[in-house]
Amino acid sequence: MEVHDERVPEGTFREFIARMPQVCAETVVERADGAVLLARRTNEPVRGAWFWPGSRLYKGEWLEDAARRVGREELGLDLTIGDRLGVYEHRWETSAPGPSRHTVNIVFRARAAVDGLSGDDVTLDDQHDAVRFVQPDDVDDEYHEYVQQYARDLQAVRSS
Predict the structure, then answer these.
(1) Is 1 a member of any domain?
(2) Among 107, 95, 96, 102, residue whose Cα is nearest residue 149
(3) Which residues lie across from 80 on neighbouring strands?
(4) Residue 25 covered by a domain
(5) What's 14's domain CATH number?
(6) Are the C-beta atoms of residues 50 and 131 closer than 8 Å to each other?
(7) How far apart, in whole angstroms, are the C-alpha atoms of residue 15 and residue 111?
(8) How high is the pLDDT of residue 98?
(9) Do the domain assignments include residue 80?
(10) How many domains does the chain have?
(11) Which residue ranges does the record assign to the Nudix hydrolase domain (predicted)?
């Protein structure tokens, strides 16, 4: 099946977001020391918050390919996609295209093809303005509840 990755006209996209859930792929990029990458968002939802990089799924695009695309487009990184951390459901009162948004997020663990990954290795897109690495057990109330949830789930998977 052909991948349809061209931009959807703004009005059509707004109508879609207003009426149905959106499927997204998100990445939890892990370093060898166990730290994970968070990027600070410049747009809604959660503008200014540290969050996991992610993107909508295009028609015909495999989930793992979408996660790799997130690495390339949002972080400038080639990612090796690992196991799925989980499937999550997010509900947002604000959204970049306008109305509230409901997303179904398939979250993958990933590693960058860079030894000693640091912020200097990351080239952010216009949706983010900064990057940081944190240990999952350091993710506290400073972070959005969805970030906290993924961090808890990652810790549980690592300890099992």
Answers:
(1) no
(2) 107
(3) 111
(4) yes
(5) 3.90.79.10
(6) no
(7) 35
(8) 66
(9) yes
(10) 1
(11) 18-156
Q: Domain of 117?
A: 10-159
For tokens 């860079």, the residue is: 114
Q: Tokens 């604000």 sit at which residue?
A: 94
List the chain residues with pLDDT less than 50: none
Determine contact, residues 40/49, Cβ cutoff 8 Å.
yes
Tell me the C-alpha distance between 3 and 81, whole Å: 19
Residue 115, Cβ density class (10 Å: 0-12 exposed, 13-18 middle, ≥19 buried):
exposed
Q: Does residue 151 lie within any of the structural domains?
A: yes
Amino acid (1-letter code) at residue 97: P
3-state secondary structure the chain: CCCECCCCCHHHHHHHHHHCCEEEEEEEEECCCCCEEEEEECCCCCCCCEECCEEECCECCCHHHHHHHHHHHHHCCCEEEEEEEEEEEEEECCECCECCEEEEEEEEEEEECCCCCCHHHCCCCCCEEEEEEECHHHCCCCCCHHHHHHHHHHHHHHHC
